[in-house]
Amino acid sequence: MIRNDEIPLSDIPDCDDTLRRLSDLLRMHMICRKRACRRNESCQGGYGPPCYLERRHLFAEGIEEIDLYRAHWDNMRKRVQHKLSRTRL
Predict the structure, then answer these.
(1) What are the tens digits of pLDDT across the range 23-66?
(2) Cα separation of 36 and 63, whole Å?
(3) CB-CB contact of 45 with 24 (8 Å)
(4) 27: which DSSP letter?
(5) Which residues of 35-49 are buried (b: 16+ CB within 10 A; e: fewer)?
């Protein structure tokens, strides 16, 4: 378990950065109204971003299977924790 004093607050993204990352994961740049996003094939961010502000339902549909993502990352954390415990011995 990670203790509260071990969480690097400087690495926690703000909400717009989180939406940008989610937008990239869901490949929303393909339908974004911003030409720069489509050209660079990734969200260029900003307030919002516009793909989220205009199409929230697509984001909701993209994370309907959040339990699968949680299971994946729980497994990854367990693997890292196991490796760390083995190196500390």
Answers:
(1) 998 889 999 989 999 999 999 988 878 888 888 888 888 777 77
(2) 25
(3) no
(4) T
(5) eebeeeebbbbeebb
